[in-house]
Amino acid sequence: MANLLFPNQIQFRWFGLIKVVSILIFELGLIHFARHSFAFECLPGEFGLCDVARNMLLASYSLCAVLFLLALYNRGAFRDLVAQTDIRLIPLVMNLTGLGLLLLSLPALKAEPTSMVLFLISLLWIAATTLVVSGSVLLLAPWQNWKTFFAELGWVTPLVIVAGSAAPFAAIALRPLWRDDALADMTFHLVSWMLKLNGQPIETFPDEKIIGFGEFFVNIAPSCSGVEGLVLTTTFAAIYLTLFRQDLRFPQAFLILPVALCASWLLNSVRIAVLVQIGISGQPELAIGGFHSHAGWLMFTLLSLGIVLVAQSIPFFHARDSDTQTRTTPQPILPFFSDPIVAQIFPFLIFMASALLASTFSQAPAIVYPLRALAMIAVLGAFWPYLRGLPWRIDLVSVGAGVVIAAYWIGFAPDQVGSPLIAELGTTAAAIWLLSRCVGTSILVPVIEELFFRGYLMQRLAPNGATLLRVGIAIAITSILFAALHDRWIEAAIAGVIFASIYLRSRNITDAIVSHAVANALIAAWALASGNWAVI
Q1: How many Å apart are CA 172 and CA 396, to the nearest integer?
Q2: Can you tell me whether residue 432 is helix, strand or coil?
Q3: Residue with the larger pLDDT of the pair 344 and 62
Q4: DSSP string computed for 345-412
Q5: Highest mean pLDDT pick, 22-31, 176-185, 263-272, 326-335
Q6: Rounded distance between C-alpha atoms, residue 320 and residue 465, angstroms
Q7: For residues 383 and 343, is the Cβ–Cβ distance under 8 A?
């Protein structure tokens, strides 16, 4: 099926899949970002809303791993499934509408809502989640392709999908069964040994399984001993061994499970040791916040990939010549860094990934902005031929729009709360931070954000010749998503509407980039002159 939005766009074999997966990965990162930006306590009588949302996020990771295995299990069926994968308007609108509703409901949860408001938000989340999931499924493939895919894989498909999706819930449900402290004892002693080996002064209380130093201590309870990781690893390994039983050598392949379980427990112990190290080094908020939230799932993802790589690459586990019937001659593809659509999407993915890593490994993510700036420079440099070929120009209307945005953004800026982060830096470090912040805000971020939101997403939602209704929907969706990336989301939404209008006026993405760059440069100049970096 031809691309409904860009029928003349030259695409390589997997390009549609890459575009869709990139959007879904971005959305998952955005949900995680919003989850930590709008931190709130689960309230009594809130219908299990928090637990359901948290568990759905856990299930999404496991489900992605299962779908990855299904793709490997029957590559022919998978190729047929994603043969028509592309950005289609109706599924994309469903997906983004649901995501927008989820994000817009988050501020209401911080205001201690009443039971009735919580009930209405619960209903809204059910509807929004349905839209997000349905839109994602239909973006990956039309419903007819899914029906064919399920029919070809037979009984194994629903079995592994249910097992994979239920794995996180099974881990949570099995917690009460782990009353024996044996595993927690082993984890406690291993963590203590690793910290002492590192020369870290620590205090330990073996009876209570408490470890730490100074004002930071953690209790390694049975639920923290890695049981969830063991359940997830067992589920993933069992599914892999079942699906790829014809490609594996038995009984040797059975060794994969105990090795994977040992690796899971060791990685969890390393995670706890690093968490304690971060906490006693003076950053307890980082230890309990970003690092604790992300490190476990990052390690499970790496372990899952490791299981597949070990089983597929080591002859001891992998059957000889088992894949000869499924091998095909590689098809030539369009070079990655030469494709204009990749140039619009990939820098934004790196931009979001750098923000996620900064919030995970730094208590003050803003302080590591120079590293994020280097990542942005590197990814934009990789696509320099595409950027150089854009129709750059200085349009007075675009410049004027940027001035207007900067004026109201500065006018409604919050006061600086506390001392700025750069006050804690030395002279050289402060100069590097100021330079990278100004360059990043004024040049790098406008290019990256406009290429994605207006250059890619807007063009997909409202191509040339689109109806007025379609243009309005495109402006609304891109502005909502753009606002979700900013703390001052009302002002950002207004800016998103203006940037979209600038782009639609000429269909020249450089006009939107120039307008965004002018606005950000004036805002950065104001922050530099006033010392109020809260304005950015």
Answers
A1: 58
A2: helix
A3: 344
A4: HHHHHHHHHHHHHHHHH-SSGGGGHHHHHHHHHHHHHHTHHHHHTS-----HHHHHHHHHHHHHHHHT
A5: 263-272
A6: 55
A7: yes
